[in-house]
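Structure tokens please, single chain.
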Amino acid sequence: MSNDKPFRKIDELVTALSAACGQLGAGALQLDGLETACTDARDLYERLVVLRHKARESAAAPSASTGNRIREQEAPTEEPAPVRLDTRPVAEPASRQTSLIDAIESTEQRKDQVKEDPKAPRTPSLAEKLEKAAVGDLHKAISLSHKFWFVAELFNGDLGAFEKGVEKLNNFKNLTQAMEYLENEVVAKVKGPADPDAITTFTDLVQRRYP
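Here you go.
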């Protein structure tokens, strides 16, 4: 997947977010500025997730020259090596998170329904609905933290193979074709036992791509 956004360091993202917060406090932040701030916040979060992953990897196998120091690296120039250590993302991707307001409203609605009729079927929460929402583009649906997880667990650490695989899975005519490709060209070619959770999560995304 191509990415035409310029590489921005963490301090640049923090500076941009700080300026946006200042404008927000002064009541001068417009909608486009707020959208930019949301994008910057998501980029900062994903960058920190990657650094946390590298820190955990370093802590498990410390180098004599670098120890356990954490530093931001420039844009990568080569594909990452296969990784088997703690690849599972801890947080949900930002695109699938619900806002606090929406979550509170959804919870209150369920409570009201229970009070009115305890035997009535439970209405799915907003988060549950989003978990099953159709996926229009796999590239956009897979967050950076999940991308590292899938590359390590399902594509033998090969970022190029991941990009090609997702591109293929994104453009089949139907779910049957996509599942055949997933089974024969992805899962069957994993070297060593893959994380079952990674397979389940990736398969769920593919199925939601072809509802």
